[in-house]
Every structure is written in structure tokens, then in C-alpha cells.
């Protein structure tokens, strides 16, 4: 046996703690969460006029059936989301390279693209199956519709990003966003306009605002950390 003391710098527990701390700092430096949320917020706000001008709504006189089609959702959202995920991936890669780090954003971008394709397939299938929409759908159908809609798939893809980044803050934010997008929560705001043609506006404004506030919050948190 020996009575030599172990140098403080060679303490295995301290070394392990330092390695874990370094890993956390690397993960934090890899994140550009604010940019992803900002891009998605912009996409959401820009989509509002497309949804407005290309919306088709006709109901029969007794109100038992309506033809309701948001054409702008198909014309705008698929290319907009694909471009958004490309922009987010490119930004993550450039930031990571500038900081001499790697990045794991590719699975997030692939998930976003896959969900966009799923949305297109579901939209086309619904269009073929429901040429004339019933006046009311069951609640579970409406919830599923909101989940596979662009604003729902944005949240699902963000869950993947939170997992990749091991970002608890983004996970909490995304669960809140999904709650607002899927319930939906309109905070009592009802658009006084042309009936069903404007019913989606409050929810879409709120979705975009939540994403924008999230982008501002994560940007300020990242600046404070530095």
C-alpha cells in the first residue's frame, strides 16, 4: 500500500463531473433553437393570407352539410415547410461548423419532411373521401385532423428536436405549444367576420405568436448563458 495523496485534478469523480459539464456545454453550443422557432413562426404568419384567399366554403340552405376546403393549406404549407426545414438544417450545420462542433439536426429535418408528406397524403385522401363535408365531425376526428395539420406536425417535429438536443426547455415549450394548437385554446378571442371563413384566424395567429415568443425567449436565454 502507499500513503501518497491523490492529486485533486486526478479525482475520478471530479473528472467525471468535468466531462459531464463539458458535454452539457457542447450540447448547449449546438443549439440554435431560437432560429428554428423564428422560421416556423414566420411560416405560420405568412400562411394566413394564403389560407384566407384560397378558402372555399359553401353550405346548403338547411345547414346540414357544408363544402369546406382550405386550398391554401395545400398550395402554401408543403413547400413552405420543406423550405423551412432546409433553412433550419443549414443554419444548424453552419453554426456548428463555426463553433468547431458537430450537429444532430438531420433526424429532425427528416422527421419534418416525413410529416409534411404524411400531411399531404392525408389531405388528398380526405379530399377524395369527403367531397362534401358533414356539418360536424366527432371530437377525435377533429383532434386527429389538427395533429396531422401543418401546425400540429410542427409540434411533433419539435419534440424530436428536443430529444436530439436533450433540451428540457424546448420539450416543455413544445408540450405547451401542442396544447394550444390541438385543444385548441383561443383565449376567448373570436374573429368578428364572415362566419366559417374566418374561424381559423384567431387560432393561427395564436400559434404563430406562441412560436415567436418562444424564439424570443430562447434567444434571450442563449445570450444570457454566454
Automatic annotation (TrEMBL):
Transmembrane segments: 32-55, 75-93, 105-128, 140-161, 168-185, 205-222
Keywords per UniProt: Membrane, Transmembrane, Transmembrane helix
Superkingdom of the organism of origin: Bacteria
Protein name: Uncharacterized protein
Amino acid at each position: 500500500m502507499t500513503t501518497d495523496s491523490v492529486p485533486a485534478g486526478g479525482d475520478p469523480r471530479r473528472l467525471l463531473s468535468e466531462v459531464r459539464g463539458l458535454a452539457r456545454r457542447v450540447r448547449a453550443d449546438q443549439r440554435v433553437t431560437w432560429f428554428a422557432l423564428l422560421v416556423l413562426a414566420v411560416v405560420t404568419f405568412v400562411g394566413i393570407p394564403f389560407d384566407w384567399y384560397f378558402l372555399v366554403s359553401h353550405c346548403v340552405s338547411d345547414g346540414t352539410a357544408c363544402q369546406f376546403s382550405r386550398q391554401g393549406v395545400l398550395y402554401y404549407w408543403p413547400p413552405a415547410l420543406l423550405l423551412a426545414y432546409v433553412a433550419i438544417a443549414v443554419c444548424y450545420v453552419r453554426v456548428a461548423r463555426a463553433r468547431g462542433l458537430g450537429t444532430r439536426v438531420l433526424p429532425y429535418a427528416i422527421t419534418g419532411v416525413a410529416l409534411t408528406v404524411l400531411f399531404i397524403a392525408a389531405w388528398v385522401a380526405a379530399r377524395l373521401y369527403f367531397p362534401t363535408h358533414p356539418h360536424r365531425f366527432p371530437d377525435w376526428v377533429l383532434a386527429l385532423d389538427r395533429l396531422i395539420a401543418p401546425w400540429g406536425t410542427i409540434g411533433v417535429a419539435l419534440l424530436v428536436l428536443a430529444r436530439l438536443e436533450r433540451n428540457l426547455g424546448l420539450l416543455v415549450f413544445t408540450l405547451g405549444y401542442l396544447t394550444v394548437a390541438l385543444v385548441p385554446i383561443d383565449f376567448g378571442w373570436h374573429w368578428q367576420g364572415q362566419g366559417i371563413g374566418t374561424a381559423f384566424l384567431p387560432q393561427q395567429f395564436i400559434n404563430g405568436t406562441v412560436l415567436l415568443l418562444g424564439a424570443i425567449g430562447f434567444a434571450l436565454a442563449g445570450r444570457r448563458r454566454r
